[in-house]
Every structure is written in C-alpha cells, then in structure tokens.
Amino acid sequence: MRKLLLVAWYALVAQVALVSLATVSAPAALAPVTATATINAIDTAKRKVTRMLLDGEGAIVTLDRDERTVRVWDETGRVLRSVGPTGFKRPADVAVDAFRNLYVADEEAGVLVFNPQGQPLATIASPELRKPRAITLDATGAVLVYDDRAQRVLRYR
User: Fold this and answer.
1) What are the respective helix, strand and coil percentages of the chain, to the nearest 5?
2) Is the pLDDT of residue 44 over 60?
3) Is 77 exposed, middle or buried (0-12, 13-18, 19+ CB in 10 A)?
4) Which of 30, 93, 96, 104 has its CA 20 to 30 A from that of 15?
5) Residue 64 and residue 123: Cα distance in Å, rounded?
6) Residue 6 has what pLDDT?
7) Would you say 140 and 115 are in contact if contact means Cβ atoms under 8 Å apart?
8) d(CA 48, CA 92)
9) Predicted pLDDT at 56
10) How many CA atoms lie within 13 A of 57 on its CB side?
11) Residue 22 has pLDDT above 50, yes or no
12) Which residue would you say has higher pLDDT here, 151 or 44?
C-alpha cells in the first residue's frame, strides 16, 4: 500500500513538473520586447532605482532610494509626477493599486499612501509594523507588508 501511494505521488509530481515546464517553455505566447522609456544620461548618473513596476494605465513607476523619491514616467521617458523626498525617511518598496494610488513602504515611517496626483492620503502604522521592507496588494485590495525586523507578512484591509 505504501509503495503504491509513493508511486502515485511521484507520478503526480512528474505530471505537475511537465505541465509547469510546458507552460514556461512556450515562447510563442510571449510578446516581443521593445524599449519604451529612455532617461537621459545626466539623470541616470545620479539615480539609484531599486524598484520598478507598471501602474494600471501602463505608466512606469520607479523608486529611487538614494533620492527618496518615487517617479511615474510615461512611455517617452517624461516624468508625469513625482513624490518625495519630503515625508520619506528610508523608502524600501512601492506598489500601485487599481486606482493608481501609490503605496510606499518606508523602513522608518511605515506605509505611506498617495493619490494619483501625489498628495498624501493615509499612513499605515501600527505597533506590530516595525520595519516595512516589501509591499504588495492582493486581488481584494488588501495591503500586504513584509516586516523585516519581525520577519513576517502583515495584512491590512
């Protein structure tokens, strides 16, 4: 009985691995990559972008830890809006919700929320949130924050 279960388990694992491998190795499903935004050379020399993502409308969002600034760029490389450095102490990560609000995990200030125009909406801070390092939003809109000091994920609704 034990051998039969073990063989069945290995067969299931092999099928899952084959399905995963087939899904990953399908290059026909991938769209061609093209360069979109270009940032001029003077700007790139003084930037340290540590996080980059896209908002719901295709704008490029970057976090520059050294300058303590979040910038939103269009496809041509033009800055649409900028948040910071005022209010940021040690920004570590950024996320964007479906309404294009920015969520910035700051290791010393908590999670700062800004509307699409860059104005502050809220601050998420609690005694159990001591050093937010990473942030994301789930499908329901809940904010998930990784606390580096406590080494756990906290969920805020």
Assistant:
1) 20, 35, 45
2) no
3) middle
4) 30
5) 20
6) 37
7) no
8) 12
9) 86
10) 10
11) no
12) 151
Taking the model in full, what pTM does it have?
0.71
- Helices assigned H by DSSP within the chain: 2-24, 41-45
Nearest residue to 62 (alpha-carbon basis) of 90, 37, 45: 37
Mean pLDDT of the residues in the chain: 79
Domain 41-156 has CATH 3.40.50.360: no
Residue 151's pLDDT band (boundaries 50, 70, 90)?
Answer: very high
Residue for token digits 């269009």? 74
Contact 148, 107 (CB under 8 A): yes
Sheet hosting strand 102-106, strand order edge to edge: 91-96, 102-106, 110-114, 120-124
pLDDT(15) > 90: no
Please list, in sequence order, all residues whose beta carbon lies within 8 angstroms of the beta carbon of residue 111, skipping any fewer than 6 positions away: 103, 104, 105, 123, 124, 125, 129, 132, 135, 143, 145, 156
Measured CA to CA, the distance from residue 68 to residue 49 in angstroms comes to 10
Q: The tokens of 112 are what? A: 């700062």
CA distance 10 to 12: 5
